[in-house]
Amino acid sequence: MSRIQELRRGRLRFQVRDEGPVDGATVVLLHGFPQEGSSWDAVVPTLHGAGLRTLVPDQRGYSPGARPPGRAAYRTNFLVADVLALLDAAGLERAHLVGHDWGGLVGWALAAAHPDRIATYTAVSTPHPQALARATLRSAQLLRSSYMGFFQLPRLPEATLGPRLDRALRAAGLPEGAAARYAARMREPGALTAALNWYRAVPLQRSKVGPVRVPTTFVWGDRDPALGRTAAELTAEHVEAPYRFVVLDAGHWLPEREPTEVAALIVEQVTG
Predict the structure, then answer these.
(1) Residue 108 belongs to a domain with what CATH number?
(2) pTM metric for this prediction
């Protein structure tokens, strides 16, 4: 089984890190905003030690060669198709899937729509999208998500966030090195606009994410300022398979701040 360093989809070129035992069960790890694949750096060594292969892409908008213009190019169906193309390029009929933040939303959508391609799913921080929508009607989740409305504006979020991103990420709880690394990536030409286009594509979504029918673990930090308990608890109602809900005494940036716990839970899900 060959190693993958780049995924080509038409004119788009995605950076991919393919590591660990080449003949091990494969785990695909999807990052969130405004991260990159390196957000999993402290998690993957434990997975490799357990005999697992990892595929870690820099997703659409984050890979320098995969920044198509316009928000429509960042609809969830395209993001899901990117991951399916990665599985195909790796010659995998099925893989284990892990997603954090926006990568978690892609993971829910992929696991729901293509259970034949996903062996297990581990969602990190991100509740099921329909649970999140329901929570806006019965909790403070709408207030927690209010920044997403600001991100819909043209140009102003880039002008406001760009010069302050490093400092803002550190204030939000990210380690200094990770915050500097992600901020540097967002300073690349077109990178911040592409990353924000994930949010701007939300009004263009064409369908709801259905129930998930693969074994699922959901890991959530009870001090997450963006994703509240109501949505986290409602997620169980959208999984029609063996399900485990794990609450950590932590915030939002679980791959960077709680890598030992996250890695152990992934291994348990994949090998259990």
Answers:
(1) 3.40.50.1820
(2) 0.97
